[in-house]
Structures are given as structure tokens and as C-alpha cells.
Amino acid sequence: MMKSENPVGVLDSGVGGISVLRALTKLLPNEQFVYFGDSANAPYGTKSREEVLRLTFQTTEFLLKMNCKAIVIACNTATAAAAQQLREHYETLPIIGVEPAIKPAALFMNHPRVLILATPMTLQLEKFKNLAENLSDKATFKTLPCPGLVELIETGKARAPQTEEYLRTLLKEELQDPPNAIVLGCTHFPFVGQTLRRIFGNSVRLFDGAEGTARQLRRKLSENCLLAPPENPGRVVFRNSLHSDEKIKLMENLFFYGF
After folding, report:
1. Which residues are catalytic?
2. Same structural domain for residues 72 and 130?
3. How many Å apart are CA 137 and CA 238, to the nearest integer?
């Protein structure tokens, strides 16, 4: 039986889910978290659905061996590919996925033009397509795959000049007629938020699903009487499939400083 003092497991294909982890610790400061980044297999967004499913189950098993009381899938691709199967397999375990912030972006003004940035695989998944199609009467959507962006962030180049050059090239057409909103459809992408604001200016709103994921985790823990007691000292433990001190240092820098 899970105890309220047990940690929450957070998994991602690499370091991107740390953008979600930051929102989780802000809303739930008394919780303990174990964050596992599967950087050895990153990015998930270019893999088959079957491979992402296998890797997500593998990481979940690792986190359960660390007595995690709930699992947060801090990866859009893994959520779409594996969340339902995980919930069916671990029936009593709270499992929270991330949802791209398509709905908030569609509703923040009257019929906005919304650009969705995501990995190639995420944009191909039916769940992702359905979210946009169900709101097609509220907004005009355009999707743009970002191959290579995850790799830049994974190697600590989120704020490097080459990443800004990559984005300016990728978004050259969009700059001619900027959207009203951009949905960051990968948990890695908030780490280039400052660069996107520099490219587009403050007139374009950025949306990501981290805060919604944090609220859902709090609801699920409360429903299952698993919220950490107020006196519990919150902390974060980082693990990575590369077993690299350099990667752990990058994860810590992203968590504490956002770079």
C-alpha cells in the first residue's frame, strides 16, 4: 500500500519534463519527487509508438521500485502513446499525463490563430489531432514539427545562438504573419520560451500544459489520500538513463535556473 510520505515519480524522454517538474514543486512544495530522464533514448518524438510504449513501461517499473505513489508522464509523446495502457495495467496507481494547452490557447481570445509546435510523432498521434479538431470552430490551428529542437535542448543548448538561429529559420514564414498564440506541444519547448519571445515579441502568447498537470496531480493525490503531510520536507532526486554527472548537472541547472 502506498503511503503519503512516498515520492511521486516523474518521467520524460530526457530533460524536457523538468519544465513540468518545476510547476509540480511550486504547487506541491511538501512532496518528494523522483525525476527520471531517459536521455539515452531521447528523443521519443521520432520513435515508433510501440517503442515509446515499451520505454515508458520500463521507466514506470523503475520508479515503482523506488516506492513512488503516483506517476507523472511529463512527456507529450509518451502521454499520447502510453498513458491509457499504463492506467489499464496499473489500475490502482494514480497516473497523470500532460495535455498540450490547445484549449486555453483556443479560448484566450475570439477565434485566435494558433501555431502548435511539437515533435513529428506527437503531431501524428490521433489524440493530438482530435484536440485541435474538436476546437476548430474556436480557433484556426497550424501545426509545425520541430525536428532537432529536442536534441539541442538535451545537449544544454536551449539558449545557445545556434538554437535561436534554428528557430528563426524554422519560423521564417510565421514571422511574416505572426500567430496570436503558440502552443508548446513538447515539454522540452518551454526552455526556449525566452527565445521565442525575443523572436515574436510580447504580442504572441505562449501556452504550455505544466500548470494544468500540477493541478491534476494535486487532485489525484487528494482523492487517494496521498497528499504529503504539511511537515514533510519536499525534495527532488534526479536520475537519468545515461548515468552521466554532466547530464545530472544539466537537469539541476534546468530545474533551478531554467537553462
Report:
1. 75, 186
2. no
3. 42
